[in-house]
Amino acid sequence: MNTALLNFLACPKCHCRPKLERFEQGDHSSSNSRSANGEVVFGVLQCECGTLYPIIDGVPRFLEGGLRSFPEFVSQHRLDLEKLGHVGACEPRNRGSVSDNDYDNIRKSFSQEWGIFDYEGDKTWGWTLEERKRVFLGDVAMKPEELCGKRLLDAGCGNGTLTAALSDFDLEIVGLDLNDGLGRAWRNREKYAAKAIPQVQYVQGNLVDPPLREASFDLIYSSGVIHHTPSSKGAFDSLVRLTKQGGRLYVWVYGRRGLPVRLFFLCGRSLKRWISLRSLLGVCRALSPGYKVAAEALNRLGVLKFRSRTTREITLDLFDAFAPRYNFWHTEAEVYSWFVQKGFRNIRVSGVQKHGFGMYGDKI
Question: How far is 87 from 324, CA to CA, in rounded Å?
Answer without folding.
Answer: 37
